[in-house]
Amino acid sequence: MSKHIRNTFLVLALITIGVIILFASNRSPSLDQKPVVPEVSPQSVSNQSITPLKNTKHFLVSAFMDQRIQGFDIRLIGIFRKDSMQELHCFIYCAGYPSETTPAHILQHSENFGFPFVTTDVMCPIPKNCSATHVTLLTKPSPETGTKYDWLPIRNKKTNGGKEEKMDFTVCISSLFGDYNNVLQFAQTLEMYRLLGVNRVVIYNTSCGPDLDRLLQSYSQEGFVEIVSWPIDKYMNPSRGWLFSESGGDIHYFGQLTTLNECIYRSMERSRYVLLNDIDEIIMPYQHDNLKSLMDELQKQHSDVGVFLIENHIFPKNHFEPSRRFHLPQWIGVPGVNILEHVYREDPDQAIYHPRKLIVQPRMVEQTSVHEVLRFFGKKYNVPMDVCRIIHVRVALRKSLKLEELNVDKRLWYFQEKLIPNVDKVLENLGFL
Description:
The protein has eight helices and 22 strands. The protein is an alpha/beta fold. The protein has two domains: 51-155; 167-429, Spore Coat Polysaccharide Biosynthesis Protein SpsA, Chain A (Alpha-Beta Complex). The termini are far apart.
């Protein structure tokens, strides 16, 4: 081959390579590149009960599949700052399918007692052909390449394995905080609930005393108590009171409104009924031996009711049953209140608002407050006090009442033959006796 021909081939080859490089450099990246989709890895899934939401003053708590409202599929429960509301977008991860964003519908709860932070639901539709597994929220319509997101797992998803066996009763206890170390009353109340047919007690724990912590860990290990870590004090200044104008702070009573709602959704697919009350309260049937027979009867009479409101009755802890029959020597050194010694009950003052606590069918509740449901399906019913009421051993509410103006109520004594040895066993195993 002549030198001239070789040079011609060389020039043509160089021109061809140049054209290819130029063409490649001018091609739209969308023709040969797929957008970078953030992957869900174990490191990117939030395992916290409170997760700060990027680029906002808000916090996310949990996400649940909830298709009871047409047009929406996922409900995120969060704690949002009222003066910083903004447009948000649901960023959904679909297993084996690119992530997409959908419009977020923000629902502030109507009750928050004047505090800067409010319990907030965010409703998200799921794109078609998406098997949604995780979700988060964005402040922009599209995700940004290279940004790390904290994904929340979507709970309450239906499984293909058939219908899951449900528990009958779950008790939700919110806002355990401070140096609360009332071991004896805690153990008595938990064992009383066990006798009444409760299957699980969920407790949101910010902090407590060392003795009570030991008791809780024991119940947790056996599966009767589910402890949800609730470090609300790491993110804001939680109030120890219920009203902002009186106590100040960022959020009502250590986030009680948020935890009660979270507990309802946590229990929605695994418990027929949820009891919303405090640990020093026992929702007590007075015409039935247990909660199941009580609710079977109430539901038979009121089949369209999903919310049952129970009257709260105070048993002042400064008045003791005079015979001291249950002033048991083995319990003297155990920290806390002995509820069997307090049998004097206040009549509520009917001239003022008298708060109640709740037994609910979780699937019939959308949003709740402490003493009332805010949004629900079906009807609600005030249970007569002679059928069921709350035994609430605490400081007197009507402090002006004299002993002779109180009612003697020994309902707890009906269970003492089983309650006392059960409490003794728990306390002995932990070295309190």
